[in-house]
């Protein structure tokens, strides 16, 4: 089974940037056949979709709150997916999780967390005002 590990979180001021990483280990073969999504969960709130990228890396989808500020990308050789976050706001404060979802090459991207099979432990992002 593939294991996912997020990193790159931290404390940043409003307007700052962070780059999160989601690295796959273990049985990484399924990861190359998976779309990957970033989700976040703030205290007292449900997990919400942020961004997702196709297994080929050619298609992406973003939540409205992420459009224009966040960029998702993947490095297949490194089995890693990234989330570049710019112009961070206090409302971006949350634990950020990555999830993977095995799909066929032409499958549409999913913004539903229930569609993802493997998850990392999360990385905390705190944006101070």
Please render the helix and strand layout as text.
Layout: E1 2-7, E2 10-13, E3 18-26, H1 29-32, E4 34-41, E5 48-53, E6 60-62, E7 70-75, E8 80-85, E9 94-102, E10 118-119, E11 123-128
Parallel strand pairs: 2-11
Antiparallel strand pairs: 1-3, 3-8, 4-5, 4-9, 5-6, 7-8, 9-10, 9-11
Task: Describe this structure in a few short sentences.
This protein has about 130 residues and is mostly beta strands. The chain is built from one helix and eleven strands, in the order βββαββββββββ. The strands form two sheets. Strands 2, 4, 5, 6, 9, 10 and 11 form a seven-stranded mixed beta sheet that branches.
Can you walk through the features of this model?
The protein is mainly β and 129 residues long. β4 (34-41) and β5 form a beta hairpin. It is 3% helix and 50% strand. The chain is globular and about 40 Å long. It has 1 helix and 11 strands, in the order βββαββββββββ. The strands form 2 sheets. Strands 2, 4, 5, 6, 9, 10 and 11 form a 7-stranded mixed sheet that branches. The protein has one helix spanning 29-32; strands at 2-7, 10-13, 18-26, 34-41, 48-53, 60-62, 70-75, 80-85, 94-102, 118-119, 123-128.
Features:
mainly beta, about 5% helix, 1 helix, four-stranded antiparallel β-sheet, seven-stranded mixed β-sheet, about 130 residues
């Amino acid at each position: 089974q593939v294991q996912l590990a997020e990193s790159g979180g931290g404390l940043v001021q409003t307007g700052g940037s962070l780059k999160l990483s989601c690295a796959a280990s273990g049985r990484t073969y399924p990861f190359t056949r998976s779309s990957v999504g970033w989700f976040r969960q703030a205290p007292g709130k449900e997990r919400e979709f942020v961004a997702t990228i196709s297994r080929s890396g050619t298609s992406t989808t973003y939540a409205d709150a992420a459009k224009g500020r966040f960029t998702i990308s993947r490095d297949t050789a490194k089995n890693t997916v990234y989330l570049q976050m710019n112009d961070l706001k206090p409302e971006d404060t949350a634990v950020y999780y990555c999830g993977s979802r095995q799909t066929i090459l032409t499958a549409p991207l999913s913004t539903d967390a229930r569609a993802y099979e493997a998850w990392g432990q999360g990385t905390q992002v705190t944006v101070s005002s």
